[in-house]
Task: structure prediction
Amino acid sequence: MIEWSVLLAWIVKATVIYLGLVNVGALMTLAERKFSAWMQYRIGPNRVGPFGLLQPLADGVKFIFKEELMPAGANKMLFRFAPVIAALPSMMTIAVIPFTTKDVVLGGWNIGTFSIVNLDIGVLYILALGGLSVYGLIIGGWASNSKYSLLGGLRASAQMISYELTLILTILAVVVMAGSLDLQQIALSQNKVTDWNIWYQPLAFLMFVVATFAETNRHPFDFAECEPELVAGFHTEYSSMKFALFFIGEYSAMTVMACLTTTLFLGGPSVPFLEDPHWALQIAAFLAKAGFFLFLFIWVRWTLPRFRFDQLMALGWKVFLPLALLNLLATGVVKSLV
Amino acid sequence: MVIVKRKELSLAEKLYLPEVVRGLSVTFRKMFEKPITRQYPEEPLEKTEVTRGQPRLVVKEDDSIACVSCGLCEAACPAYAITIDGGETDRAIEREPKRFDIDMLRCILCGFCEEACPKDAIFMSDELELADYSREALIYNIEKLKRPQAALQQRIDYVKKINTRWQTPSST
Amino acid sequence: MANALFYLMAAGAVAAALGVVLAKSPIQCVLSLLASFFCLATIYLLAGFQFLAAAQILVYAGAIMVLFLFVIMLLNLGNPSSKDGAEDGLFRRKGAFLSVIVAAATMAAGAMAVTADGLAPATQPMPEHGIDTINGLAGEMFGRYLLPFEAISILLLATAVAVVVLAKRDRKDAGKGS
Result:
């Protein structure tokens, strides 16, 4: 039987991490609007609460009170189910992210490292579940019985398949470096700042970051939505909280991808120039690094124009795939020689 | 026909990445520049003498309006926003409007009524905000249209000034 | 608890598999297959094979089924039309007959495997390293079972090459015809 303190520690960690994830998602909607405003000489939302900080709350209330529409000819069950499929997997993937490599001690109570579970196959878990959220987009697009939605779903699926390859191959290079699929081990293997994978795998890092943009359907690869061509893509027909769920899914996926990039390439919770940092410092370092990548998502979105779909495919299959394969080969050869 | 030759991209531009970084640096720098947003209700637009807002009826010092319900503004109005019913009074000028309605939802703020008025009774005010909960509330009657002369003085002076150009030098 | 979950998932897998062959719309077939994969992955997890479960979801649910959905949506396959009913009926009867045979054979094989191994796989002692961890699995796969593994790889490669060749020839023929 599981010990009570272990169970309690687990509940505490899960609560904190999931509340954090949902709140980061909500704050990201605000951050997106604020940063885009600043980049365009505007002010951004500033009416609700100090500096508009309560804007996500107001948006949430508005979403709840919006009318729910059901398009004629839609597959009712799948139409209702799709937003859940879009949001749930990407929220589940945060479970294996190691926010600390040291045990967290709260007033003498050791609750273990700050991650919900420590899976032997953490990387695979994230990839397997993260890849599923695309079903939400495909099914949502198909069940809406609308041409724009269907095209959006189609694009999402094609894009996901193309860039999952790059994503997996670049992650594999990191796995070869660390010799483990356990994210905790991967983070531990880059404890010193000179050991960070970004110095050894710059190409993989670059391709990984670009692939995360494609994986999460973010600019400049947001072809599943693509307003000028597809109205709003797969969620054209959605309204109310169902629509909001798609957004929660997207922002959760972004958050997890930012955390994953941090863990794989920037040493996760490792603090530069500190051999044995306190666990709180580790969490702070992790959040700072992940925060940068979240900012990067916004930053790139408001800088670059959208690609063309064929450019996206060409980039994925003709450039990134061979490069990632070569990178993996080189990593393997060098690793076996050293 | 002009044939535009497409510029050959350099290697750095083909790699795309240096250009991405350049673009990112531009947007990052712009983040710290002063926003040009006008916070509208708190920072209203400046009102100058040429501001042409909603039409209003001038109330003279003796609390009367100059309108004699001649109907010229009603005829001039391109949006058919004005409705006038005339009536008699005991004053020296015997006519006054019994009803003078302007449908603010129809009014296009063109100022034709102001130009048409032979009695200088109607002027464009500097009031621009228009919001209410029903359409009926936005059909303004005489009482709602009345404004003291002081409130419209800037516009009255301006109209008189620009109208001087039509006055021929007196030949009498 | 684990036993109950196992039987639930097993029933779910069978029901979903039935859905694959019985559903009218191709999209529903694919989604049923997906549900079946999930039930299987859960059963792997119950048996302690984390890697297998993750690989099942990653490869089959995450990639191959997305591709299936993509193709079905791209070709816009609707419900099968009942125009050529006679031929269709014959084909269906043949197909049903074959399915029954295949299902019977599979069940027989499964029954043999179960009677040989005992019912509850989770209580079985693992091989020496235990193949629930990656190290163990990799050791088994690239050590003891290296030859079968490579054989399967070559088979898959040959299939991929064959598919490309077939697809290319089709296109060439079409080009000549027009």
About this structure: Chain A touches chain C through 25 residues (CB under 8 Å). Residues 4-52+72-337 of chain A form one domain. Chain A has one domain: 4-52+72-337.
